[in-house]
Amino acid sequence: MLDKRTAIALGTLTAACFVSVTSENLPVALLPQLAAGFGVSGPAVGLLSTGYAIVVAISVVPLVALTSRWDRRSTALVTIAAVAVSNVLLALAPGYGVAVLARVVSAAGHGVFWSIVAPVATRLLGPERSGRATAVVFAGNSLAFLLGLPLSSWLGATIGWRPTVLAVAGAAALSAVVIRATVRPLPPEHSARPVIRRAVTARALAPVNLVTLVVVLGHFAAYTYVTVIIADYVHVTGSATSGLLLGYGAAGLLGLVLIGRRVDHRPRATALFVTGGAAACLLVLSTAGALSTMVAGIAVVLWAVPAGGMAVILQAAVLRVAPDRADLASAAYVVAFQIGIAAGAAIGGLCLDTGTLPAALAIAAACGLSAALVIRRSAAFPA
Questions:
Q1: Distances (CA, A) of 98 to 94, 103, 182, 188, 279
Q2: Are 217 and 370 in contact (CB under 8 A)?
Q3: Which of 6, 100, 107, 284 has the most CB atoms at less than 10 Å from its CB?
């Protein structure tokens, strides 16, 4: 049973994750308003997201090493404060160039925050429950897609994009204050600064990072264009698409809860459920779904259940194989995750441009099955 202070601290970190992911995806939620406000094209606004991922991938390992001797609470506070500052800068930006600078500031903080948040939650809850601790704080990620992005989009259309971005900045600033008030000081577990190469190239991490790269690439090859997939296979558009995406988000949250409860006791089984389950849903969608809109709709929603636990089983594996360098090992995992997102989105975009979107579903399913084979043979996911 959790004591009250630990429960509040975990809730605070969950809220910070919610704010971080909502901020990360603001260009997606506010794309038409940002394009009109800065006088640029939609792809230029999209660069604020893809460039964000590139900055995270490049900066996260050296920044995590640089902050390795900081108190972990202070690191979380500073990185969320960076999200607040960046959004103030974005809201006040006179032109596109300043907007790009604002996103660079946010991306630098984002990578470090996501490298330490699961290790911090694990220290609060105990190493024997690292998977559950990760699931609790990562619920903020799922809630951001379920509530944060639709709310940001609605606010952008209602009150304008600048007040909306300022609201996100205020939420980030409040999160930093509450982290300071509720999370106890957490000194670094090692006094010496780690050797980066030794920490991120450990052989035990290799299968985890490989699974991360493969499964994330496959997922985002399809998920990045999920609205097009829904239109082609479920044959719904407009408000009906929003309803289906809401169901997808709710199913993802359910998957997070179910997998989070079991990942500590059944690491391999939960990892195989995530990878194999996602592959099965995508295969059903691409075959039977093409013949039945009802089957397609069900497959889309069920796809979210294993996908909702994806980050949990991967982060839990990192903490399992590298407990002595959890933050830097997590940074390497974040790099693999971001590369998977960028590569998957690029592959899916190529399939969309060439009229071969079913190939993106096939690639996603193949990646899920390939990742399952690695998991089956890897000691990083014990039976």
A1: 7, 9, 34, 35, 41
A2: no
A3: 107
Distance between CA 338 and CA 275 in Å, rounded? Answer: 18
For 238: left if phi > 0, alpha if psi spans -120 to 50, otherwise beta; the answer is left
Residue 213 pLDDT level (bands cut at 50, 70, 90): very high
User: Given pLDDT bands bounded at 50, 70 and 90, which one contains residue 99?
Assistant: very high
Predicted confidence (pLDDT) per residue in 52-80, tens digit: 888 888 888 888 888 888 888 999 999 99
Sign of the CA dihedral running 252, 256, 257, 262: positive
- Residues with Cβ within 8 Å of 218's Cβ and at least 6 positions away in sequence, in order, are 278, 344, 363, 364, 365, 366, 367, 368, 371
Per residue in 119-160, pLDDT tens? 888 888 877 777 788 888 888 888 887 888 888 888 888 899
pTM above 0.85, yes or no: no
Q: Cβ contacts of residue 187 below 8 Å, gap of 6+? A: 71, 72
Burial classification of residue 322, based on how many CB atoms lie within 10 Å of its CB (0-12 exposed, 13-18 middle, 19 or more buried):
buried
What value does the CA radius of gyration of the chain take, rounded to a whole number of Å?
20
Coil, strand, or helix at residue 379? coil
Contacts of 115 (CB under 8 A, 6+ apart): 60, 64, 327, 328, 330, 331, 333, 334
Report the interhelical angle of 310-321 vs 293-308 (nearest 10°).
Answer: 20
